[in-house]
Amino acid sequence: MDFFFALALGILFGTGVFQLLRRDLIKAAMGTAILFTSINLFFLASGAFAPDVPAYVDQYADGKATPSDPLVQAMILTAVVVSFGSYALLLSIITAISTRYDTLNSDEVDELKN
Fold this sequence. Notes:
There is one protein chain. By secondary structure, the protein is mostly helical. The protein has a single domain, classed as Helix Hairpins, CATH 1.10.287.3510. The chain is built from 3 helices and 2 strands, in the order H-H-E-E-H. It has a two-stranded antiparallel ribbon. Helix 1 (about 1-20) packs antiparallel against helix 2 (about 25-45). The longest helix has about 30 residues, at about 70-100. The mean pLDDT is about 80.
């Protein structure tokens, strides 16, 4: 199961980076959202004590309950808030660029060049 989770995580990360490098700004924004999601899933996967148990579930080892690590949950919550704010700022910048230059293609925005 770890192999398939790592494979899905790698595919998500690769898709996010690929979309981030596109010329269309909307596709780049979608790539940013996919990249943020894959990073949050990586945090979730790295916080699990055992490979068969998710990070947010209590685990039972030798008859006693062991709570999951709260640091990972706090990091994921912080990452979600930061990614939401970054994504909102990115969409507002894309809206300003499309309004000012009447295009979403980053190659056609010629006034940004020196």
